[in-house]
């Protein structure tokens, strides 16, 4: 196949209405235990592609690959349509991907000039490729990434523009209320005790229950309480998908009596209270038996209100910057860096525990930091030339400008520091927390959010001061990630995490949970496959950040700024599909 049946999720029979065909790999993987944060739709356009055709322009197609975490293998995700005779294609077919903030999703876009109907890509002319991460696209201004196409030496291959859009159906909810009139009487001694069951239709014609109302006792004219349900749960974002509503009379023994049913759709319900949303409740058995049967009552929609949940991505698109600061534990309890037993061991062939943790977490978060300049601090060491102990020193040796360029710059400064400072003590966290808090306190309008990554062996000397710093910082736009390396007991770190008991200091509780702790040893693969463990570490470390971020914005009533206007490419008409 040329990716049209297999890798492109086409509209299946059973759905009315026209959503365009979209490149997608199945909507739900039963084996995957993690729920995607959201779905994003990627649109691809190119400018000034190479011209490989002699008598006309190229006929380009885009093929998207994703990279497996373990073996780094590239797997085809999907293909766009082919657009005839253009060097500036704006592909209509989209790629729909699950987006996790906490995972680094490597992407590769390959471009070909299609010369025949063959699905085999080697039969077509290669026009170049572009590598990026999904986070890089989402984190770009307006979630629009423009990059050069590379891959053919000595040739200018043009540029590609990839735009990410979060799918609205992921996060719309609706608040609905229903009432009923003149329902059939089912109970011998009293009136019925009615409740509603909502079911969404599946591709194979079956139905999945998605909501049950409460039971209203002893009435044939019930008014149910308003309820909130996500659009994804109600109809999976397909506004024309059938929604079936069944009406039952509640019985204590669970053998609820069926009163009748009706069908509707999200699109019909969204008209709100009107004559279109008064439904006859039909009992098919009664209808078949009784000639004079009209209905078993009516159900009326009283209200329909759409609520859109704002997401982490809305703030990033609106320009909120994530500022990332690293703080590394240089205390003597880590062991002498020249010894293989040390957590700071300078092994020429392999990253040490600190290097691994720094690289894993840093590579994820750097996609969201627009200038890629990170302040990198150390604590608990004696500094040259006079041997004074410092609890917040610049790894690059420049206290006026502690910024390092990218994670590679931080790694370089870390290794340079190891050669020049003496590991000492005590292990004080409060100074680096207060250092970042000073910056966070100066920008409380939602335009910036600060993340401090502390990498430590977990032996802490200033517990009381650290707790106080965290309680104070919980009012600020900041989060703290603590990665514990080495074999120590991390009870103190677990206490700072505050997942079980909210952290407090002098009787004051933290306003929100801002600390996430993970013990590095839980992520070291027995087989020595560091890559896999790094991916798991980064996932668990960063999974709480979007919710911590949103909790700050909600408490402060800060709404995301509108995103810059989307890029609208010119329309190209000629298209063929193979």
Give the topology, please:
Elements (H helix, E strand, L loop, with lengths): L7 E2 L12 E3 L13 E10 L12 E8 L6 E6 L15 E5 L6 E8 L11 E9 H6 L4 E5 L10 E8 L5 E10 L12 E8 L5 E6 L14 E4 H5 L6 E8 L7 E9 H4 L8 E3 L3 H6 L8 E11 L3 H6 L3 E9 L23 H13 L7 E7 L1 E3 L4 E3 L2 E2 L8 E3 H15 L1 E2 L6 H12 L6 E9 L6 H11 L4 E7 L6 H7 L6 E2 L2 E2 L5 E5 L10 H13 L2 H12 L22
Helix pairs in contact: 6-7, 6-11, 8-9
Describe, in plain words, how this protein is organized in 3D.
Probable calcium-dependent phospholipid-binding protein that may play a role in calcium-mediated intracellular processes. GO terms for molecular function: calcium-dependent phospholipid binding; metal ion binding. It comes from Pachyramphus minor. Residues 323-524 form the VWFA domain. The protein has 578 residues and is α+β, with helices and mostly antiparallel strands. It folds into three domains: 38-167, C2 domain (Immunoglobulin-like, Sandwich); 172-308, Immunoglobulin-like (Sandwich), CATH 2.60.40.150; 320-556, von Willebrand factor, type A domain (Rossmann fold, 3-Layer(aba) Sandwich), CATH 3.40.50. It has twelve helices and 30 strands. The strands form seven sheets. Strands 19, 20, 23, 24, 26, 27 and 30 form a seven-stranded mixed beta sheet that branches. Strands 1-2-6-3-10-9 form a six-stranded mixed beta sheet. It has a four-stranded antiparallel beta sheet with strand order 5-4-7-8. The relative contact order is 0.11.
């Amino acid at each position: 196949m040329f990716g049209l049946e297999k890798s492109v999720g086409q509209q299946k029979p059973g759905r009315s209405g026209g959503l365009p065909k979209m490149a997608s790999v199945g909507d739900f993987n039963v084996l995957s235990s993690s729920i995607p944060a959201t779905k994003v739709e990627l649109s691809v356009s190119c400018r000034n592609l190479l011209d490989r055709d002699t008598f006309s322009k190229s006929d380009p197609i885009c093929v998207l690959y994703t990279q497996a975490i373990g073996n780094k293998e590239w797997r085809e995700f999907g293909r766009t349509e082919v657009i005839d005779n253009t060097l500036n294609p704006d592909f209509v077919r989209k790629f729909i991907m699950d987006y996790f903030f906490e995972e680094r999703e490597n992407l590769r876009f390959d471009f070909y000039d299609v010369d025949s109907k063959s699905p085999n890509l080697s039969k077509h002319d290669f026009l170049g490729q572009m590598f990026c991460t999904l986070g890089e696209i989402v984190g770009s201004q307006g979630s629009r990434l423009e990059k050069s196409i590379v891959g053919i030496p000595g040739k200018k291959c043009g540029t590609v523009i990839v735009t990410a859009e979060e799918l609205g159906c992921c996060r719309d909810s609706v608040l609905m209320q229903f009432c009923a009139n003149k329902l059939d009487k089912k109970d011998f001694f009293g009136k019925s005790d009615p409740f509603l069951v909502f079911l969404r239709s599946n591709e194979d014609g079956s139905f999945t229950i998605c909501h049950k109302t409460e039971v209203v006792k002893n009435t044939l004219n019930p008014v149910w309480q308003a309820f909130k349900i996500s659009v994804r749960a109600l109809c999976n974002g397909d506004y024309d998908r059938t929604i079936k509503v069944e009406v039952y009379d509640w019985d204590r023994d669970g053998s609820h009596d069926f009163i009748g049913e009706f069908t509707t759709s999200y699109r019909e319900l969204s008209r709100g209270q009107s004559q279109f949303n008064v439904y006859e409740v039909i009992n098919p058995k009664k209808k078949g038996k009784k000639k004079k049967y009209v209905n078993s009552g009516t159900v009326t929609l009283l209200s329909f209100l759409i609520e859109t949940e704002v997401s982490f991505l809305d703030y990033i698109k609106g320009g909120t910057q994530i500022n990332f600061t690293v703080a590394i534990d240089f205390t003597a309890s880590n062991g002498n860096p020249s010894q293989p037993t040390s957590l700071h061991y300078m092994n020429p062939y392999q990253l040490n525990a600190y290097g691994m943790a720094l690289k894993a977490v840093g590579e994820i978060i750097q996609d969201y930091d627009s200038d890629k300049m990170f302040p990198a601090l150390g604590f608990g060491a004696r500094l040259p030339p006079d041997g004074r102990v410092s609890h917040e020193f610049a790894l690059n040796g420049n206290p006026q400008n502690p910024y390092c360029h990218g994670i590679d710059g931080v790694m370089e400064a870390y290794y340079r520091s190891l050669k020049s400072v003496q590991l000492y003590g005590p292990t004080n966290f409060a100074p680096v927390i207060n250092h970042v808090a000073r910056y966070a306190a100066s920008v409380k309008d939602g335009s910036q959010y600060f993340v401090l990554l502390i990498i430590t062996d977990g032996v802490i000397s200033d517990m009381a001061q650290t707790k106080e710093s965290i309680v104070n910082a919980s009012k600020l736009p900041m989060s703290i990630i603590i990665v514990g390396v080495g074999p120590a007991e991390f009870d103190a770190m677990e206490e700072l995490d505050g997942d079980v008991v909210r952290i407090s200091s002098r009787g004051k509780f933290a306003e929100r949970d801002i600390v996430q702790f993970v013990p590095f040893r839980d992520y070291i693969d027995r087989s020595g496959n560091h890559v896999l463990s790094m991916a798991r570490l980064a996932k668990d470390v960063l999974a709480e950040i979007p919710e911590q971020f949103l909790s700050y914005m909600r408490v402060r009533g800060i709404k995301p700024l509108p995103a810059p206007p989307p890029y609208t490419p010119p329309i190209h008409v000629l298209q063929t599909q193979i």
